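INFO batch 0412 | record 1 of 1 | parsing
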Amino acid sequence: MAKGYIIARVTVHDQEAYALYARGAAVAQAKHGARVLARGGRCEPLEGEARPRNVILEFDSYEQARAYYNSPEYQAAREHRLGKGEGELLLLEGV
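INFO prediction complete | emitting tokens
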């Protein structure tokens, strides 16, 4: 079965609110079996526009990744992030 990934590229404008989001998201990640492959850290744009905060989460399946995103735990955490920055989140099926 192909793995599922959530890739987030974010520019944070409110660090305090984002910290609340990150704590809540970590609870949801643990509950849904996420493995953090990258979180923050050094990055550089090779092509296109870069964002300063990048996260890659791995799940056992695409469906498990989607369930994490749609879970009540993640959606509650997400409320702290909305309007406090800008970015993109992508659900991706692995090979």
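INFO post-check: The longest strand covers residues 4-12.
INFO record closed
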